[in-house]
C-alpha cells in the first residue's frame, strides 16, 4: 500500500522559489541584527510543558502541541521565542554578560484553527535587548527595525509608536481602573482594524458596561495619531500629562526616545506616535510599536514589539527588563512579493553548463570549477540529453546564462554563452571573455 | 511557585559562542552548496506518522516522537531529512524540474537513550541530487564534500569510497546470499571501529553461522584499502571483477567516478577506496562514502552519504534514484574546535562604543551608525556606568576594539580607540583614522 504524500493541515512546504526568497530575507535582516551586535542563540523546539504554559495565555495553552515523551515527561513544542528566552536567561544568568542582545530565527507551533494565511508551524525572527532599563535600548530596537526595512528594499513604511502607560493612563482617565479590565479594553480596541469602530464600541459596552459617551471619548483619544512634526505634536498632547501619572510617564518616555532617534540619520517621517497601537499581549509594560508598509496597509504590521519588565518572573524572583521586536516573516514575504521585491528564481546558480556529448562532460566540470573560483555559482547538467531539454531546464529554473559545450567549443577550448533573458548567443568565447560578460 | 529553568534531558541550548560558530559553519557550507546550484527547500518539523514510519527502521520507530494532535491525527516529529524529501519529491513531482538538487539545514528528533555527544534534537545538513542515474552526480557530491571541507579550513581529510555492490559481491562470494543476511553482515562489519575485529568475528559467527576461516577471509577482503595511486590500485583489485557480477558492477562504477574526479583540480590523495565503509543504512544501493579528518580519526565520519535507488517507494510506484550526503554538524563543530578553527567570540560586533556621560550617548550612536555604514559591526553600551565595567563587558564578549567617548573626545568630535587584544590605546583620533586602523 502506497502512502499519500501530503503535509498536515496548517503545515506547509517551501518550494525552492519561496525557500530561496526566505533565505535571502533572513540573510539580510540577520546581517542588520549583527551589525548592531545582536548575537544568535538556539534553544530546543521542545521543552518541559511547565516551562511553556506558566507564561502563556489560556488561548495559547489550548493551542499547545503537548504530549508525553518516551520517559513519560510532560513536554510541548514551543509556541513562541520569548518564553524560551526567559528560560534561557534565567538558566545562564551567571554566564551571560548583561546587557544581553540576542536574535533568533526559528520555528514555533500553534494548533490554531486552520485558516488562510495562518499556519500551525511558522518561523519567528526575534531580536531582544535584555537587562537594561535605558530608553537608549528602546531607541536601538527602532533603529534596527528601520535598518531592516531599508535592507529589504522597503522605503515607504511607518513605525507606529505608543506606550503601555499611555494606554493605561487613558483607560484610567475614562474610569477603567482594574488591570484585568484595562487589558480587556485594550484587547478589544486592538481589534479596530478587524471589526471596525462599531464592533469595538459594542464589545466595550458589553464587556465593561461603559456609557456611549465614555466609549466615544475613549475611542477618540486612542485614535490620536501624529501627523505633524515632533515639537508640534508633543506640545499638542502635553496637557494629557496632567491627566494622571501613567500618562505623564508614557508621554515623557516617548519624548526621550524621540530625542535619541532625532539625532540619528533616520528619515523623521518613518516613525510616528499612534495611540491606537495596543499590541494584544499582556506582557508589555513600556514603549510598544508596530510597522506598516505604506503601499500595503491591509497587510497589517510586519514588525512589532515593545518593552516588558517581567520577562523572567516564571523562573526567578529577580525581575529582568527587556525590549525587543519580532519580524512577521510570512507577512513580509507576502508584502515583498506584492511590491515586486522578491526574487522569482528557483535556482541559486547563475549559469547552467550544457554538454551534447559524454566526451565533453569532464571539460564542462572543469569550466564549472573555474566559474566557481571566480565566485559565480555554476551548475552542470549531469546528463547528456537533447540541447532543447537542457535549455528548457535552465528556463524553468531561472539561470541567467547557459554555457554550451559542443564539438567546436571542445576543439577550440572555448565556450558558447547564451543569455537566457535576451536569448542572445555568443559563440566560441574564451573563458575570460565569458566571465567578463557574466560579471558585467 | 517558580519553575526551574532547565532543558529536557538530551536537548540543549546553544549559547552565543556556539551559535555564532554554528552559523558561520552553516554559512560557509551552504555557500558551497549554492555554488554548485543546490537549492534550499523547507519541510515541516511535524508530519503524518504514516509518512515517516513506513521508511524508518524498527529502531527509528521506537525513537519516534509520535502523538495525537488536536484533531486526533496520528503525527510525529521528523527523525531525518531524507524521508521528508521523499514525500516532497513525490508530492511536487510535476512542479519540480528534474534533476533536482536540494540542500536543507534543519533539526530532527530521535528519542534515543541519552548519552554523551548524542542529542535527541540535532541539526542535519543534507544535500541531494535527485532524478539522475549519471555517475557524474555521484562525482559532484564528492566534489561538494571536498569543497565544503576546504571552505571550513580543513585541509587534511580523506573521503573514503566504496560501493554497495562491492560489499554485496564480497558477501555473496563468501556464501552470504540472502538480502537480510547481507544487511546483517554489513551492519556487523560496520561496527569494527566500535567493537574491534574480535567483536565483529564473534557477532558474525553467531548471526550467520560462518566458519572461522570464512570470517577471516571476509574480514580480510573488506579491509582492503587504497594506499597507492589509482591505476595501480584498480589493477590490483581487477581480478575481483571475475568473482561475480555485483563486484564487477561496483568496481567499474567506482572506476568511472574516479575518471571524472581525476580530471578536476582536487588533491588526489583526498579520496580513496576503502572496502570497509559499509554505511549501516539499508537504503543505499550504489557508491557510498564517509569523510574523516586525518588529525581527528577518533571523531568518526563528518560527512557521509551515497546513492539510493528507491527513494520514493513509499509514495509512488515509479522509482526515483538519488545521491546525496549529510554533514555531521555536531561532530564537525567538535572537530573544528579541536583543530582550533572555531571562533571563540561571543559577539558579532567588532567594536563596543563606551560613554562616560549621558550627554555623549547620542554622539556614540551617530558614530556607531557611521561604522555600520562602513560595514563594521558596532555595538553601543546602552547605559552610563563605570568605564571599567564597560571595558570588562567588551573583554568578556570578545570585541576587538573599544571606542571611548569622554569629555575630550566630545569637545573635539574625536574618539579614543582601544585595541582589546594588545591593550594599546590611541587617544582622540578622527573617525576616519580610527576606521583605517580597524579595517587594516
Keywords:
homodimer, 440 residues, alpha+beta, BirA Bifunctional Protein, domain 2, 2 domains
Structural account:
The structure is a homodimer of 440-residue chains. By secondary structure, chain A is of the alpha+beta class. The first copy, chain A, folds into 2 domains: 16-339, 2-Layer Sandwich (BirA Bifunctional Protein, domain 2), CATH 3.30.930.10; 351-439, 3-Layer(aba) Sandwich (Rossmann fold), CATH 3.40.50. Chain A has helices at 16-35, 49-53, 58-63, 82-91, 135-151, 164-173, 179-189, 192-208, 212-222, 230-237, 245-262, 329-338, 361-373, 387-397, 407-412, 431-439; strands at 39-40, 46-48, 66-68, 74-77, 100-109, 121-130, 157-163, 271-273, 287-293, 303-308, 322-327, 351-355, 378-380, 401-405, 415-419, 425-429. An 8-stranded mixed β-sheet of chain A has the order 1-5-6-11-10-9-7-8. In chain A, strand 12, helix 13 and strand 13 form a beta-alpha-beta unit. The mean pLDDT of chain A is 92. At the A-B interface, helix 1, strand 1, strand 2, helix 4 and strand 5 of A face helix 1, strand 1, strand 2, helix 4 and strand 5 of B.
Amino acid at each position: 500500500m502506497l502512502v499519500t504524500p501530503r503535509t498536515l493541515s496548517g503545515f506547509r512546504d517551501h518550494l525552492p522559489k519561496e525557500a530561496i526568497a526566505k533565505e535571502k530575507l533572513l540573510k539580510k535582516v540577520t546581517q542588520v541584527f549583527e551589525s548592531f551586535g545582536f548575537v544568535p542563540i538556539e534553544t530546543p523546539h521542545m521543552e518541559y510543558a511547565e516551562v511553556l504554559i506558566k507564561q502563556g495565555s489560556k488561548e495559547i495553552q489550548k493551542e499547545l502541541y503537548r504530549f508525553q515523551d518516551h520517559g513519560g515527561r510532560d513536554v510541548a513544542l514551543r509556541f513562541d521565542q520569548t518564553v524560551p528566552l526567559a528560560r534561557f536567561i534565567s538558566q545562564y544568568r551567571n554566564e551571560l554578560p548583561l546587557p544581553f542582545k540576542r536574535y533568533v530565527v526559528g520555528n514555533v507551533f500553534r494548533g490554531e484553527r486552520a485558516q488562510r494565511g495562518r499556519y500551525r508551524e511558522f518561523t519567528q525572527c526575534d531580536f531582544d535587548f535584555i537587562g537594561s532599563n535605558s530608553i537608549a535600548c528602546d531607541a536601538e530596537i527602532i533603529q534596527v527595525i528601520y535598518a531592516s526595512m531599508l535592507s529589504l528594499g522597503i522605503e515607504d513604511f511607518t513605525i507606529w509608536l505608543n506606550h503601555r502607560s499611555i494606554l493605561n493612563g487613558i483607560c484610567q482617565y475614562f474610569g477603567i481602573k482594574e488591570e484585568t479590565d484595562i487589558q480587556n479594553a485594550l484587547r478589544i480596541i486592538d481589534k479596530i482594524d478587524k471589526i471596525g469602530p462599531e464592533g469595538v464600541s459594542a464589545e466595550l459596552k458589553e464587556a465593561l458596561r461603559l456609557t456611549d459617551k465614555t466609549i466615544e471619548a475613549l475611542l477618540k483619544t486612542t485614535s490620536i495619531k501624529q501627523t505633524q512634526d515632533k515639537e508640534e505634536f508633543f506640545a499638542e498632547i502635553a496637557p494629557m500629562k496632567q491627566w494622571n501619572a501613567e500618562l505623564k510617564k508614557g508621554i515623557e518616555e516617548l519624548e526621550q526616545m524621540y530625542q535619541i532617534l532625532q539625532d540619528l540619520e533616520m528619515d523623521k517621517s518613518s516613525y510616528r506616535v499612534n495611540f491606537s497601537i495596543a499590541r494584544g499581549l499582556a506582557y508589555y509594560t513600556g514603549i510598544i510599536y508596530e510597522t506598516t508598509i505604506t503601499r500595503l496597509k491591509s497587510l497589517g504590521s510586519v514588525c512589532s514589539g515593545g518593552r516588558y519588565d517581567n520577562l523572567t518572573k516564571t523562573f526567578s524572583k529577580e525581575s529582568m527588563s527587556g525590549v525587543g521586536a519580532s519580524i512577521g516573516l510570512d507577512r513580509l514575504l507576502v508584502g515583498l512579493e506584492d511590491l515586486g521585491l522578491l526574487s522569482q528564481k528557483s535556482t541559486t546558480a547563475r549559469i547552467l553548463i550544457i554538454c551534447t556529448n559524454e566526451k565533453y562532460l569532464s571539460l564542462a566540470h572543469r569550466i564549472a570549477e573555474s566559474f566557481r573560483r571566480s565566485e559565480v555559482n555554476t551548475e552542470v547538467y549531469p546528463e547528456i540529453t537533447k540541447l532543447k531539454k537542457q535549455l528548457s531546464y535552465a528556463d524553468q529554473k531561472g539561470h541567467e546564462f547557459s554555457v554550451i559545450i559542443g564539438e567546436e567549443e571542445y576543439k577550440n577550448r572555448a565556450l558558447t554563452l547564451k543569455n537566457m533573458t535576451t536569448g542572445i548567443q555568443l559563440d566560441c568565447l574564451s573563458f575570460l571573455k565569458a566571465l567578463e560578460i557574466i560579471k558585467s
